[in-house]
Amino acid sequence: MSYRFTENLSASANSIASKGSQSSVNIAASSPALSFKELLVDKLSSIEETTQQMQELRSQLQALKNDQKITEIIRRLMPDGSIMITEYSDGKIVSRYRKKPHMIAVPDETVPAKLAEDGTKLMSQQPMVLKPSRSIASELFY
């Protein structure tokens, strides 16, 4: 079956070749060739314009990418009084750490104050507890 198919193709190719050799066609002088050359010249000029536009867009995209390369520092006040500082660069975490708060000693309110013999409170003997000191300035400028 495939042998007959190839035999038919070779016979039709010979007949087309013999017909083409009988008629002489000047490709350069034909009207389709001229219109093709005109189309090609138009396309070449449009290709140059397109490449210039692409280069401008690439430079704009590069400028936008450079603008997005910012370093952002976020400070969060945690429930235990510490401050979590996170540094982002290009939307990715570069570093993250916690800064312990400044602790101050305050009287422990859960334990009653010791009394002197005359019934006055002895504040100097009051038990003390460390609690985080909350300063708005320290939270802003750490």
Radius of gyration: 44 Å
Give the end-to-end Cα distance, rounded to a whole number of Å. Answer: 87 Å
Major β-sheet annotation:
3 strands, antiparallel
User: How much helix, percentage-wise, in residues?
Assistant: 40-55%
Sequence stretches where pLDDT stays below 50 over 5 or more residues: 1-13, 20-25
Mean pLDDT: 75
Q: How many helices in DSSP terms?
A: 3
- Principal-axes geometry comes out as rod-shaped
SS-based class: alpha+beta
Approximately how much beta-strand content do the residues carry? 15-25%
Strand order of the largest sheet: 1-2-3
| H/E element sequence | HHEEEEEH
Please tally the β strands and state the result: 5
Characterise this structure.
With 142 residues, the chain is α+β, with helices and mostly antiparallel strands. Helices cover 46% and strands 23% of the residues. The protein has helices spanning 2-22, 31-68, 136-141, and strands spanning 71-77, 83-89, 92-99, 103-107, 128-132. The chain has a three-stranded antiparallel β-sheet, with no helix packed on it. Strands 4-5 form a two-stranded antiparallel sheet. It starts with a helix and ends with a helix.
